[in-house]
Amino acid sequence: MQKLTLLSLIIILSFGTMVFAQKSSSKKPNIIYIMLDDAGYGDFSAFGSKYIKTPNFDKICSEGMKFTQHYSGSAVCAPTRSVLMTGLDTGHTPRRDNTAKSNKKELIEKNGRPLVFLKDEHLTVAESLKDAGYTTGGIGKWGLGNPGSSGVPEKQGFDYWFGYLDQVHAHNHYPEEIWDGGKMVTLEGNINGKKQAYVPYLQEEKTLDFIKKNHENPFFLYLAYTPPHGEYIIPESDPVFSEYKDIVGGKKVQHYAAMVTRTDQTVGKILLLLKKLNIDEDTIIFYTSDNGPNPPFAKHINSGGGLRGIKRYLYEGGIRAVMTVRWPNHISAGTESDFIWDMRDFFPTACDIAGTKIPKGLSGKSILKTLQGKKQKERKFNYWEIHSPFQQAVRMGNWKAIRFGTKEPLELYNLSTDPSEKQNVAQQNPKIVKDIETFLKTARTPSPYFPEIEYTKRK
Questions:
Q1: Positions in the chain whose pLDDT score sits under 70
Q2: CB contact at 8 A, 64 and 318
Q3: Rg (CA), the chain
Q4: Is 66 helix (H, G, I), strand (E, B) or coil?
Q5: Which of its termini does the chain have fewer beta carbons within 10 Å around, N or C?
Q6: How far is CA 7 from CA 11, 47, 104, in A?
């Protein structure tokens, strides 16, 4: 009897171990999406920067897949975030520029800016993942709905958000108040001009805390970090600041470079925590930036990476964005891909990764096959628009077209031979121009807030 009982116990324990292993292996992967604010294509050492150190970005490249032909959702922050959240390109997403080009009274906020927020009927990637059983969190800059509106993150699928709701509020790294868990809370250390609570440090703290609290169940964590945008400032007591004392361009560039590296250090802490919690292999990480750089950094430290254009323009320097993706045992380490995709593709890709249904009506496409090293057909046309001034851009294979306003002639560039868009070859390629012009007729849905207008040069 004793032998039989012992044997039975061994069988029961073995069966229990098998069940536990099956449950562990069937756990949905955690999804982390990291996006810096205004760091350019040339600000990362893995993409050729000679000025800024990003060792953890480089580490993810070496342990995952590096994409050389990945694009932002737009050339400025708010529409990029709208594209990322809705899976719709800027011809269809609700927010197509930072501010609306409309005088509709319902858009005028207390600060006088006409803003377009997400509404209840808009579906976000956070809502889809939450429905699939994920705990959803966001930290950093939201930009798609101010307090009291239907666009706040908690009404758009997020269980928790810490940071800024308004993009202008996000310019200040020492604000007196911050959005935390569905309400504005006071940062006592910044009252009356004091500068004791540096928000990027708080973003790091909240990130690590969220992972610790939610690591036992699948989570989606959207890290829309604010550096290096806004006021270019980092505490000069931070050791990383002294690393750039000899950088060209002066103190503003020194602060900017230090902000990029300091944020990259936060990513390193995330990687260490994932290993410590034994969820490293169950977590996929996307790491990018939201749009091209501002002029001073393109000039002094080649933040555009040799590409034409800067933030707010649809040339490559304004919309080409670094991207690396890491998922141990699923993505081959040290691989590089020139597959063309952009931020609208994250929504369906995340659904594919989570094993949940991809909603109908998205303009994005899942790139999971590409991540797995399989061949995948590229989209024929990739589209962007922006409204300050009104521009449209199309990428079709190696061809890149851009048009300012509704009546200016189309510019055309062959990116395979001219990645810096220096030689307009529209006259030599009338058929390509005609094909793109035909596509442009159906590339967008009309918006009362973002109309097509003729081009007027900035004063």
A1: 1-26, 103-111, 458-459
A2: no
A3: 23
A4: strand
A5: C
A6: 6, 59, 77
* Dihedral in degrees, nearest 10, Cα atoms 288, 100, 411, 399: 40
- Lookup result for tokens 């990003």: 54
Helix extents (H) in 306-429: 316-319, 346-354, 368-371
Between CA 126 and CA 134 the distance in angstroms is 9
How many angstroms separate the CA atoms of 459 and 443, rounded? 29
pLDDT score for 429:
98
Beta strand 65-67 pairing with 323-326: antiparallel
For 178-230, how does the pLDDT look when each residue is reduced to its tens digit (9 = 90+)? 999 999 999 999 999 999 999 999 999 999 999 999 999 999 999 999 999 99
Token output for 306: 């040799």
SS3 state at 415: coil
Rounded-to-integer distance, Cα 347 and Cα 359, Å = 9
DSSP 70: E
The closest of 395, 388, 392, 421 to 311, measured between CA atoms, is: 388
| Per-residue pLDDT at 111 | 57
Helix, strand or coil, per DSSP, at residue 314: coil
- The reported pLDDT for the residue numbered 296 is 96
pTM: 0.93
Half-sphere exposure of residue 32: CA atoms within 13 angstroms, side-chain side: 27
Cα angle 139-145-151, degrees, rounded to a multiple of 5: 100
Sign of CA dihedral 122, 126, 131, 132: positive
Q: What kind and span of H or E run contains 19?
A: helix 2-25
Q: Which of 55, 72, 89 is nearest to 289 (CA)?
A: 72
C-beta of residue 98 within 8 angstroms of C-beta of residue 448: no
Closest CA to 353 of 259, 288, 412, 285: 285
Check residue 458 and give its pLDDT.
Answer: 56
At 187-197, the pLDDT tens digits run: 999 999 999 99
